[in-house]
Design goal:
heterodimer; A: 259 residues; eleven-stranded antiparallel β-sheet; 2 helices; 20% helix; B: alpha+beta; 4 strands; disordered C terminus
Chain lengths: 259, 298
């Protein structure tokens, strides 16, 4: 009988210890995943509309979604984000390809953050926005909370990865500079599988990956990705229908162009 | 690889194969002469000479035929490289001994060993090396009838009889002129045989399945967008898979010449934290070089 109590006590202590450990681990995970408060400086504000524009250029192997494929060629894809710092559900994302006659929209979505949302995906054969009511189903089914930090983390994830590689000796620092709005940036380089990748990463948090250039062993450009805009806009400057519609001046898909 | 280089390689293979077959046949037909050449080397026990002579002639036959019909041509080109190197080494040994008579090349017992002999061997070694290092090429049955004609012709020079052979009694050793068939009948049978083989080759050429059986007719290109939170949600990046169909004409995967257009096959979202890379499926079994594109992990 005494022996049984001893076992029950032992197992109980073990369970308590396990739960405490899990709780502590969970807190630590949340800490490392979220943006620290001091990051909310002028670079990351707590109000206004953050406009981010990213250019991705495939110098050799571009295949146009707008044209539905074809032969490989140089291709530039533009990703634009409008994000409301006060209401992370109010968003607008536009992805377009720069073709001979200008930009062609291949994906866009948005939401007023309250009553409705819309989405258009040319790759799925949609040529007009699909619309829905309520909050935009942005999150996975298991999640309900969305903070502005989550959006910011989407941009600084790759920068953090590069800094980790630098820390682990898998990348080397080849320079540093002061770059306008980005402030102090580090130039990191890594050689992988015959390619030389040079990354420009913001030194301070959030460690945005500002630019990434990939060249082959002959120095021929393969890929280039850069953030061209990181601007804070006044929400009143954007029209009422801005959040609920794709840009009117950009044709969806191939438009007039033929594949 | 350009068409010209490809053609030159085929030609090289045929020339080398034909020379080996000729050399083998001459050794078969004049085995005593070849055995005599081996004896002159004084490198083998006398009892083993007939066995070695038989072995070398057989090996030459196999190598020659394999090169002609393009069966494991790289392997047999390597073997021909070894054989020719051994022949050349034996010639060097004999020259050092001051023995220039009876080269034994192509079964010739009277040919002198000279600079021409070495130059010829060097050229053959170069041809063998070229085929040895070149990418494997398409199966080609066309040299089969050619090689059979050559072999049959060589064989016919012995047992067939012509009027002059009969009259002059010049039939070669061991074969009575009366025992052989007439040259006209022989040529008739030869023509039938060659015609049949050519017919089979033609059928094989037009009806058989493409030679590049291992070549992927559907090729895949995987592309990952660099930026997370584009289209996919937050923790995921887009992964597009493109496909194109390649013709069996040669699957020139390093050009677009015989492949169709790329079309989007699937679009999924992959975790951002996973290692990702753009890649093009390599052309397994293609005779020409294809590119694989192992992009870097972030």
């Amino acid at each position: 009988m005494r022996a049984q109590r001893w076992w029950i006590g032992f197992v109980g202590l073990f369970v308590v210890g396990l739960l405490a450990g899990l709780a502590l681990y969970g807190e630590r995970s949340i800490d490392t995943m979220s943006t620290p408060d001091h990051a909310l400086n002028s670079f990351v504000q707590d109000q206004g509309i953050l406009y981010v524009r990213i250019e991705e250029h495939q110098a050799q192997r571009g295949l146009s979604i707008a044209l539905g494929g074809g032969q490989m060629r140089p291709l530039t894809t533009i990703h634009e984000f409008w994000l409301d710092a006060q209401n992370p559900w109010r968003i607008r994302r536009v992805t377009s390809e720069l073709l001979e006659d200008g930009p062609h929209l291949i994906f866009a979505d948005g939401s007023d953050g309250n009553t409705g949302w819309w989405s258009v995906d040319w790759a799925k054969g949609q040529s007009a926005p699909e619309r829905g009511e309520g909050r935009y189903p942005l999150l996975e089914q298991s999640k309900t909370e969305l903070s502005f930090d989550v959006w910011i983390r989407g941009f600084w994830r790759d920068g953090q990865t590069w800094l980790n590689r630098l820390h682990d000796g898998k990348a080397m620092q080849v320079g540093e500079a002061e770059q306008g709005r980005w402030g102090h940036v580090l130039l990191l380089q890594a050689n992988e599988a015959g390619y030389v990748v040079t990354a420009t990463v913001r030194a301070e948090t959030p460690n945005i990956l500002v630019e990434k250039i990939t060249v082959d062993s002959n120095g021929i450009l393969q890929k280039a990705q850069r953030i061209t805009n990181w601007d804070w806009l006044d929400p009143t400057q954007l029209g009422d229908d801005f959040w609920m519609n794709p840009p009117a001046d950009v044709p969806i898909g191939s438009g007039a162009l033929k594949p | 690889m350009s068409d010209v280089v490809s053609f030159l390689l085929v030609l090289t293979r045929w020339v080398l194969g034909a020379l080996f077959v000729l050399a083998a046949f001459s050794k078969w037909l004049n085995r005593p002469g070849f055995e005599h050449s081996l004896k002159q080397l004084r490198a083998f026990p006398p009892d083993s000479i007939p066995i070695i002579a038989l072995g070398v002639a057989s090996l030459e036959t196999i190598v020659g035929l394999a090169l002609l019909v393009n069966l494991l041509s790289n392997l047999f080109a390597g073997l021909s490289l070894l054989l020719l190197s051994a022949f050349t080494a034996s010639l060097v040994i004999r020259v050092q001994r001051g023995e220039a008579e009876g080269c034994g090349c192509f079964g010739a017992t009277r040919e002198k060993i000279g600079s021409l002999t070495f130059a010829r061997n060097a050229a053959l070694i170069t041809l063998s090396a070229a085929i040895f290092i070149a990418p494997a090429q398409e199966w080609n049955p066309w040299p089969i009838p050619v090689s059979l004609i050559m072999g049959a012709w060589l064989y016919a020079s012995r047992p067939t009889r012509t009027r002059s052979n009969v009259i002059k009694g010049k039939a070669e050793r061991g074969v009575s002129p009366q025992q052989g068939i007439s040259r006209r009948n022989f040529l008739r049978r030869l023509a039938l045989m060659v015609g049949g083989i050519l017919g089979v080759s033609l059928l094989d050429h037009w009806l058989a399945k493409p030679a590049y059986a291992g070549c992927p007719y559907v090729q895949y290109y995987e592309h990952y967008y660099d930026t997370c939170a584009v289209i996919c949600s937050f923790e995921y990046r887009i992964h597009d898979t493109w496909v194109r169909t390649c013709d069996p004409c040669g699957c020139g995967c390093d050009t677009n010449s015989c492949c169709g257009s790329w079309t989007l096959s699937s679009r999924t979202c992959q975790p951002c934290d996973d290692c990702y890379r753009d890649s093009i499926q390599p052309c397994i079994g293609c005779p020409y070089g294809c590119f694989t594109d192992p992009w870097t992990c972030p």
